[in-house]
Amino acid sequence: MSDASDIGGRTAIVGIGATEFSKDSGRSELRLAVEATKAALDDAGIAPSEVDGMVTFTMDNNPEIEVARNLGMNDLKLFSRVHYGGGAGGGTILQAAMAVASGVCDVVVCYRAFNERSGHRFGIGVQDRPPAPNTENAHYAWYSPYGLVTPAQWVAMFARRYMHTYGATSEDFGRVAVADRFHASTNPAAWFFQQPITLEEHQASRWIVEPLHLLDCCQESDGAQALIITSRDRVKDSPNGGAIIEAAAQGASKGQEMMTSYYRDDMAGLPEMGLVARQLWATSSLTPADIQTAVIYDHFTPFVLCQLEEFGFCGRGEAKDFIKDEGIELGGRLPINTNGGQLGEAYIHGMNGIAEGVRQVRGNSVNQVPNVQYVLVTAGTGVPTSGLILGRDN
Amino acid sequence: MSELIDALRAFEGRVIGPPTRALDAVNEPMIRHWCDAIDDRNPIYLDNDAAKANGHRGIVAPPTMLQAWSMRGLGGRTGATAQDDLLRLLDSHGFTSVVATNCDQEYMRYLEPGDRVTTTVTIEAVSDEKKTGLGVGHFVTTLQEYRDDAGEVVGTMRFRILKFAPQPKVEPRPQRPRPSITRDNAFWFEAAKQHQLLIQRCARCRQLRHPPGPMCPHCHSLEWDTVDASGRGAIYSFVVNHHPQVPAFDYPLVVAVIELEEGTRLVSNVIGIEAHDVEIGMPVVAEFVAFDDELTLPQFRPGLN
Ligand SMILES: [Zn+2]
Fold this sequence. Notes:
Chain A is an alpha/beta fold. Chain A has helices at about 30-45, 65-70, 90-100, 135-140, 150-165, 170-185, 200-205, 270-285, 300-310, 320-325, 340-345, 350-360; strands at about 10-20, 55, 80, 110-115, 205-210, 210-215, 220-230, 245-250, 295, 375-380, 385-390. In chain A, the strands form 2 sheets. Chain A has a 9-stranded mixed sheet with strand order 3-2-4-7-1-8-11-10-9. Chain A has a two-stranded antiparallel ribbon with strand order 5-6. In chain A, β2 (about 55), α2 (about 65-70) and β3 form a beta-alpha-beta unit. In chain A, α1 packs across α2 (about 65-70) and α6 (about 170-185) packs across α10. Chain A starts with 10 loop residues before the first strand and ends with a strand. The mean pLDDT of chain A is about 95. Chain B has 3 domains: about 1-25 and about 75-165, Thiol Ester Dehydrase, Chain A; about 25-60, no CATH class; about 185-300, no CATH class. Chain B has helices at about 1-10, 30-40, 50-55, 65-70, 80-90, 185-195; strands at about 15-20, 95-105, 120-125, 130, 135-145, 155-165, 200, 210, 225-230, 230-240, 255-260, 265-270, 285-290, 295-300. The interface between A and B is large, with 43 and 39 residues. The complex binds zinc ion (ZN). Zinc ion binds near residues 218, 219 and 221 of chain B.
């Protein structure tokens, strides 16, 4: 069976909207959701009454119908949730694109809104997870009684093995943080606007969980991001232009666990992201050489290296050299996370990264890469995940 | 420390305040109220004839009322005393809590209506530092002497308190996070309580699998049994946790993926080694630790067996 899907190039993101990104929004999550959605619809020049589909994360606390009712929307023909935390990002776009390409919907909103810093913080982990006897809780039975309870800890286990296998170092991870913070430093929307870091500062930052320093870990943020998906032929009517969804894909692979796929033969790769990569390349008929810039999911720096390898920007174990020699900052071979990423801009579960992909295609990023034709955007790693390729409407 | 002992000893023999004469003479109404309150129906306290029949001149007061006759009422006492000084001295050395430990009374004669007692209080003894169930402290014994107007001692009371340093409350260690027990994983945690490290095995194709599940992913059999792992393995990967700190654990905390010699992997803690000495490939061996009544888990220590 082919990895290519029929949705390639038939739909587009025509609107993006976000709240400010903060550590304490002072507002309800629902209000963040409706603010971002209204802003995205305004950006697209589309009225709320035209929306007929809503997609968000299973982790989102704002039901589709609540957002729809507050915005005075009419009939919804698709309401859908994607599971597995930050892995959902591109999956929401895939759902929307499938709904539009198949004719089920005309306009779909994908959104994510949370007070992840001032409310429930993911960084605390699952130490208090009530042990109700169900399969999803039972997964943590093999980890939390040993004190392995946070996303940083789960990822660090892979990072240690990756370092062992390929000789990568903490400094190699640190270069990702430095690039993100460099890009954030010129982005007024970023939490770390005008606060670049050096590799020395990365190395000196305290341990969170060895081998991860504090500056290997993304922020915790309050905020919301919404995106408007419709058919490609409506791009010409969009006041701010659109980004064609050249391909969208999800991936969960053999032996998949939520953050703890420790039982596969190899722990130094991300096969589920490899599956996403194969589908994206097949559907779009593109290769890594066609990509000018990328938003590589960066909740923790080590998995950025694994993703560069899974997408074939470099060979296995060579990401450390790719980053050092080819460059992932503006002016390099593959500038990544030009918004500052989740380490620098905000942690909105990757949805703010999709918006940056749209800006790069539109040509109005604060860190615009020249002559962008195609942008790769990936979703959460270590979990069942997803990705997108966005392109210009030529 | 001996300086404090010397200072405490200096209080021994000191009289607390001037002698105080009771506000009221011994009287029948107070005797009757007392007997009502404590439900004492001894007729020598309540009935003149009965008292006389027992060789008294008339009604007598219950001996245990001794202290009651000398009480000053609410807010009665004023002025600092040697006892205040002693208690403050003990407070200043951290012995801030107080508990009465015992009270011994001695009665020389029955008090009769019309008697009026006068009380003198002396600090009789201050003990060396003692270790007690409540904490470290000093016992302070005071002697109260009750005299009638003729100056005869009618009774005494020795009252002992313990002034002690309250022990910091030792909170019981919070428990490790509980595993969610389902029908698919219960056998493993039950076996761990018996100090068995089990690996689930397909009953048909004999493939081992961990974490366990209801179906063999190779041959799809729902039948399974277990094998008893040797407990020997090697560290496949590991992390050293620093933050956040869950109260049940000591930090830095080493958590590792262990590859057992049978071929399956599991996550556990590595103990008995400094975190910075842990390495991938290091041979480890399991031992079982009962963390509480509900939770026993394998932990791994460097070594070959
Ligand atoms: Zn089988």
